[in-house]
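Same chain as my last thread, 169 residues:
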Amino acid sequence: MGISPTLIRLSLVVAIGIAIVAVYHGGDPLSPRAMAPAAFETPVNARNGVAINGYDPVAYFLNGEAELGSSTYTTVWRGVEWRFVSGRHLALFRAQPARYAPQFGGFSVYGAAQGKAYDADPTLFDIIDGKLYFSHNERVRDLWLENPDGYIAEADRVWRASPGGDVNG
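reply #2:
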């Protein structure tokens, strides 16, 4: 009694599915999705040309929370659109964009330390030494906060060596 052709096809489909999932995850079990599993090719994590999913980078500093910006108050910096909740926030950003922009282009700081351009959740943020950092999810945030200085130093080293990450912020 041999293996049925149906079982062979099913096994092949499962194997292909596992390979696709591994590639999609970038090989990192802590990340449910990766934007690009290799070095950073762009300086800003932007979906549909909008940085940090439309969240106002200045609001993290002035209001201490993640706030969605408005398409009424926008600017283009580093080739992508940035949105703000008010004209005041827009003016502050235009005057000093590197001060308010998230580190590592808005990619996950833990992922950056691993050399991977993982998407980040803009509602999971930390401001450390006056700089804005995002995490991919709660588990990753808890992990990176066990050693933020170490992960920041490693992410900075990797970021500066990548094509899109020649400068921070």
